[in-house]
Write a structure and sequence with these properties.
globular, about 160 residues
């Protein structure tokens, strides 16, 4: 049984702002890649230096797989960003964003070449997890409108 979520006004504002900021960042990164004619994930994948480096490097060396990964990267970031900004399927979008960032993190973790375990990918990954675990789109977003529409049509 799902209980109603109740946040204070300050909690709601901070969580909505977090959702919007992370959504904007992902949307910006995706659009930037889309309009950069020479962008590819090849260089990033070839630098992979941890457990799955062989897999990542294999992807970079395969034109078909690289095209698929590039497409997923660009449009994944764009759609995740839009979903978070408008508040549509934001929990799913946040979990997919966390998965993308987890892949970035394991491809090139910061602790391989230094004593630092935390980098921007890990920080944003946890921001995505917070967004997924403390949803706000059911209060402020398209999910709220969908919820209202469904409750009217069901009752």
């Amino acid at each position: 049984m799902k209980s109603k979520i109740k946040y204070s006004q300050a909690q709601t504002i901070v969580l909505v702002l977090l959702r919007l900021i992370v959504g904007y960042h992902f949307l910006f990164e995706g659009v930037d890649k889309l309009f950069s004619p020479n962008w590819t994930s090849s260089g990033f994948l070839l630098q992979s230096n941890w457990w799955f480096s062989g897999v990542f490097q294999f992807i970079a060396e395969s034109p078909l797989l690289l095209s698929a990964v590039d497409l997923i990267n660009v449009w994944g970031q764009i759609f995740i960003g839009i979903a978070l900004i408008v508040g549509l399927f934001s929990t799913t979008a946040a979990l997919l964003g966390a998965l993308m960032l987890f892949m970035y993190y394991i491809a090139i973790p910061p602790f391989i070449e230094s004593y630092i375990f935390i980098d921007k990918n890990l920080l944003e990954l946890f921001a995505f997890l917070i967004i997924a675990l403390f949803p706000t789109s059911c209060f402020i977003g398209v999910d709220m409108l969908v919820k209202k529409y469904r409750s009217k049509s069901n009752g």
